[in-house]
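Fold it.
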Amino acid sequence: MSERPLEPEPARLQEWIEAFARFAVDHLARLPLMPAQGLELADGLAVAERLSTPIGEAPLPGGIPAIIDRLERGAEAALLTAGPGYLAYVPGGGLPSAAIGDLVADLLNRYTGITQAAPAFVRLESDVLQWLAGAFGYGPQARGLLVSGGSMANLAAVVTARIDRLGEDADLRRAVVLASSQAHHSVAKAVRLAGLPPSAVRLVAVDERLRLCPDALAAELEAVRREGRRPFMLVSAAGTTNTGAIDPLPALADLCEREGLWHHVDGAYGGAFVLCEPGRARLAGIERADSIAFDPHKGMFLPYGTGCLLVRDGAALRRAHAGEAAYLQDLDTDDGQAPSPAEHGPELSRPFRGLRLWLPLMLHGAAPFREALAEKLALAERFHAGLLEQVAAGAPVEIVDAPQLSTVPFRLRREPGETLASANARSATWLRAINAAGRVFMSSTNLPSPDGPAFTLRACVLSFRTHAEQVEQALEDLELGRPGVSSSTAPR
């Protein structure tokens, strides 16, 4: 046995990398053949119990094959988020080229929190962020920050807005953040973590397409001020999680400029669509926001743990997050260098996230990302058109909304005199039948209806592995799984 087991010889390290790379590549090759959902929760929990392994003083008996066996069974016991039929929640995907970037970044293990520690690597990350800022319509004064996801991006945005609009010594008990009633739950969590009480969040009504209503926002602002409160921030959405709704960004930008509100756009799901022409047209006005959150692990297909915050006035982002410490004096920031991530966000220690963006862009170029995003919008339109065809043929389906981005919400139409509970139960049964076919996996949500939350199915097309074949399979399985349709008469 080596006297230094944590320092494997090059040949041993190469053996490890090749073994685990072979396992991962083989797994990816099997994705199209696996059930679209993965294991049911109960089965997955049973697998987890069997795989649970005490940590020993020696390596796992069986070596690499035993380890890979556990990893493969663990992957099969999870939701198949990387699969082509995954239309649930907001799909990820995980580009292989980004995984290679992670491998290289982790092996090199250079510190990229402060520029002077790795100036070239921080510059590569900064180059990607400036390219993204330009894609959203921001100018050279903008700054970006890579974080773990939309939740952390929203938190950094709330902190930046709080300090920029209220100052350091404001009475936060009076502060108010306004957001759509369809806002992601991370918004309220970010407000609380930023030091504001739960009452600081005021939710604003939406229109029939579940978009924030400017008139309702104006009325809420007036009510807040009558209470002696101080509104300082609006959080709007460029693609809600529930339905992909896009708030009226130009009108909201006008109102925020008039009222002195910091306008933050939560585009965690939908923001990346600015990279393609059809998406950019739908997100017009986003360039006027003070800050934008979006998740490259969604719309740029990267591994989970890749979020991004862009701020139009980069100096405001730095004022909110920069700090000093004597032990960092050897790494003082100098003008003219790429901005240090640690001075623009909450993390001092951080992984080199930039390489998982930079390397795919260098290997593929930007064009395939634009083409894939445009394809996802077109696939959602095709799914919607297929639903319309089924409705025209007599299917008792209610389409809640046409796709504003790449999500289509729908449910079974409520029968005359039927209770909401009964209609919800029928739609839930339908969803289970669709997913049981194993070719696609969809999820559900509850959306407002006149007499309570209505169980609603949703298909979200965003994985780079999802193509026309999976959308057509989804439409077939909708028809086959619908209550009252027999397998002998359903199209296949």
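The radius of gyration is 24 Å.
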